[in-house]
Write a structure and sequence with these properties.
The protein is built from three helices and eight strands, in the order βαββββαβββα. It is of the alpha/beta class. The termini are far apart.
């Protein structure tokens, strides 16, 4: 067995695709309208579905908002340079809701961003780096 996809209901498919593809660098793998059911499915990810887990964005026609509830947590993405990644997300209009830094009660460097529907996406630093130097480099990118 393997994980195939995670489904998120979205209120504006175009805005969600813009965020996940343009801001987070995923690719639209496939998209299909289902007129009989009045919904559209869009599958996005970093690689082909045969080799990678992906996200299914479900747009139910005419529904522009969902109550996220309090059970949903977040999607997690591993990044090589969390400070530069957050700076680039901000430059592209993305919303960073928790700046990079060590997690509470731990040392792993994390950050959080939010998609257009309010879903949280956690960024996790994959490699050990000189945090001060990377943060300074990212600040220079933002101040360009």
């Amino acid at each position: 067995m393997r994980l195939l996809h995670t489904m998120l209901r979205v209120g504006n498919l175009d805005e969600s695709l813009k965020f996940y593809c343009d801001v987070l660098g995923m690719k639209l793998l496939r998209r299909k309208d289902y007129p009989g059911g009045e919904f559209t499915l869009a599958f996005i990810g970093y690689g082909d579905e045969s080799d990678h887990s992906v996200i299914e964005l479900t747009y139910n026609w005419g529904v522009d908002k969902y109550d996220l509830g309090n059970a949903y947590g977040h999607i997690a993405l591993g990044v090589d340079d969390i400070y530069t990644t957050c700076a680039e997300i901000k430059q592209l209009g993305g919303k960073v809701t928790r700046e990079p830094g060590p997690m509470k009660h731990g040392s792993t460097v994390i950050a959080f961003v939010e998609d257009p529907d309010g879903y949280k996406v956690e960024l996790i630093q994959l490699k050990s780096q000189n945090s001060a130097a990377k943060q300074e480099s990212a600040e220079q990118l933002v101040n360009k």
